[in-house]
Amino acid sequence: MTKLFPDAYFHIGGDEVEGTHWAQSPAIQNFISENKLRNKNGLQAYFNKRVQAMLKKYGKIMIGWEEILDEIDENLIINSDAIIQSWKSRQATVNA
Questions:
Q1: What is the pLDDT of residues 1-46, one digit of tens each?
Q2: What is the model's pTM?
Q3: Annotated catalytic residue within 16, 18, 34, 74
Q4: Within a 13 Å sphere around the CA of 1, how many CA atoms are in the beta-carbon half?
Q5: Can you tell me which residues form the catalytic site (predicted)?
């Protein structure tokens, strides 16, 4: 994908993660449990951290909606070079 988008920035979205299918999947629930994630938001945070590492490898800066900060904990912190686009509240901007 990075070859298709030559800009330095890569937007991953990150909002509107529904998660119903994850909740119904025994494999996903086992993964969440084994990795000590709290819930679907923790799973999304885990995914976002991995995506950011991949993008960094290709010299890209990750952009995402403010929801990518949901359920962040000390193990799943997104690097500070990510750009967070807030749209729901001013507090989200402060938190970012």
A1: 888 888 999 999 988 878 889 889 999 999 999 999 888 888 888 8
A2: 0.78
A3: 16
A4: 10
A5: 16
Q: What are phi and psi of 24, to 5 degrees?
A: -90, -5
Query: Which of 40-74 are b and which e, b meaning 16 or more Cβ less than 10 Å from the residue's Cβ?
Result: bbbbbbbebbebbeebeeeebbbbbbbbbbbbbee
- The yes-or-no answer on residue 67 being catalytic is no
Token pair of 41 as six digits: 């938001």
The full set of domain ranges for the chain reads 9-95
Q: Assign 20 to helix, strand or coil.
A: helix
In sequence order, which residues have a C-beta less than 8 Å from that of residue 39 and are 6 or more positions away? Answer: 32, 71
Mean pLDDT of 71-79: 65
CB 14 within 8 A of CB 67: yes
